[in-house]
Structure formats: C-alpha cells, structure tokens
Amino acid sequence: MKFTGILKAFKENSLGYGPHIVIPNNVFSKMLELVPNKRVKCTLNNEMTVSRAMSPKGNINYILLNKDIVKKLKIDFGDEVSVELQPDQSKYGIDITEEMKEVLYSDPEGNDLFDKLTPGVQRSLIYIVNKIKSSQLRIERSFVILEHLKKMKGKVEYKILQQDFKDYRNKMKF
C-alpha cells in the first residue's frame, strides 16, 4: 500500500515522541487485515526499507522513525515522504544478520532461550546486533547475548547485559 505522508514530530510532553509519519486511516485498516501484529516493511522515498510497527496514538496511527533514518534520507520535519507498506513476513519482525543467525544455529540451548523471549525483546536484542557494522563484533555481541540468557535463566537484564558486553571486550584485550 502506497501513500504520501509528512514527516512530523510529537510534542515534547506526549507519551510518544520523535519523527513519525501518520498512516491514513484507510491504509491502516487495509494493512491491519493483512498484518494483525502490525509489523510492516516500510519503504521510504523508494530509497530505504525498514522494519517497523504501525503504532496507535489517540486517534491516529503512525510509523515511528529515528534520527538515523531521517539523516540517511536527507529529509526534515514538514517534508513529504513517499511511503510503501508491506506485511513483514520475517520470523522476528526485523531483519537478522547472518552472523546472529549462525550463532543462534550453533548454540541450541541459547537459541531455545532466545525463542522463548517475547517478540519485542527478541527485536530489541536483534537491533543491538544489527546496529554494529563490524562482522566480528556482531558475532561477539550475538555470543554474549546467548551467554547472558543462559546465565540469567532466559531473562534479559539490560544493565547486566551491557556489563557483559564490556566484560567480554575487556577479556579479549591482550
């Protein structure tokens, strides 16, 4: 489904905030029939495709973006944006790196714990790995995440996970 939207920002004291594009009601209704979980692939200005959720706020539904996306597209608040929404058929609702797939595949116990997490937590952990540019660091992060899940008996404690990342990097220094 294609439409043209305007890049907007929520007011400072709103529950939601940040750059977003409002989805027309007719488009939202049709997409909701296709994707009840609200996960979509969103192509912006025919340049970039990102995994997103269609989110509600009051009487509107929107796609939340971030500073990196806005910067890469070279758009600003008030600019028109061409949007195409398609159902996200991926397993986790977000693309996963080959490195993380391999680490999950090579560690059945960690993979089982990962699969038991809520979809939102899975996406958060995948995002932590996805934002790393170095292949070696993506492997390390994936490994540390699975070790963290085993240590924490399937739970994620983000402060402890951040420390686990630091401890692993410090251990690897010579």
As a percent range, the share of helical residues equals 40-55%
What is the terminal separation in angstroms?
53 Å
Query: Mean pLDDT, nearest integer?
Result: 91
Sequence of strands across the biggest β-sheet: 1-2-5-4-3-6
The low-pLDDT segments are none
Explain the layout of strands and helices:
Elements (H helix, E strand, L loop, with lengths): L1 E8 L9 E5 L1 H10 L4 E6 L3 E10 L2 E5 L2 H7 L6 E8 L10 H9 L1 H9 L2 H12 L4 H17 L6 H15 L2
Antiparallel strand pairs: 1-2, 1-6, 2-5, 3-4, 3-6, 4-5
Description:
- The chain has seven helices and six strands; from the N terminus they run ββαβββαβααααα.
- The chain has 174 residues and is α+β, with helices and mostly antiparallel strands.
- It starts with a strand and ends with a helix.
Précis, in short:
By secondary structure, the protein is of the alpha+beta class.
Top keywords for this entry?
174 residues, 6-stranded antiparallel β-barrel, 7 helices, 6 strands
